[in-house]
Design goal:
By secondary structure, the chain is mostly helical. About 65% of the residues lie in helices and about 0% in strands. The chain has nine helices and no strands. It has helices at about 1-5, 10-20, 25-30, 40-45, 55-70, 75-80, 85-90, 95-100, 110-135. Helix 7 (about 85-90) packs parallel to helix 9 (about 110-135). The longest helix has 24 residues, at about 110-135. The protein is globular, with a radius of gyration of 16 Å.
Length: about 140
């Protein structure tokens, strides 16, 4: 794919400009396999319509859960930095999946994943409560 070849030759600013020009479907397709240290994944996630489409959101949530279970490294750290946007963009149908099934290795940056998952859980529960109150 063009984006993989471009990753090696573009500056960060050029990558961001390219990402902003892509349609959401292309961004989602790329994010499913993109290395977080090669692309501005936070900016890519921010440009997607909210809530995210269910299939993409489920894939992204599973990716974060797998990253949280691994020993920390630069890759998992960059993925952890996407937890706030994930909490805001998950569709209602995935709330239950998002607040369970997180496991962490003993070394997780002094509890960084724990704190980020706790924040994600608080945001999701608040969004769910607001949605339920709005529906009644």
């Amino acid at each position: 794919m063009l984006l993989e070849r471009a990753a090696k030759s573009l500056t960060s600013e050029a990558k961001l400009s390219l990402v902003r020009a892509l349609p959401p479907e292309a961004v989602m397709q790329h994010l499913r396999g993109a290395a977080p240290d090669e692309w501005p994944i936070g900016a890519m996630l921010e440009q997607l319509p909210m809530p995210w489409p269910r299939d993409f959101a489920a894939d992204w949530l599973r990716r974060l859960q797998r990253a949280a279970a691994r020993e920390p490294d630069a890759h998992t750290y960059l993925l952890a930095m996407t937890m706030d946007i994930t909490a805001r963009a998950l569709p209602l149908a995935l709330y239950d999946d998002a607040v369970r099934d997180w496991t962490f290795p003993e070394t997780n940056w002094g509890g960084e994943w724990d704190r980020r998952v706790e924040k994600l859980t608080r945001i999701i529960r608040l969004r769910k409560m607001i949605a339920e109150e709005s529906a009644s």
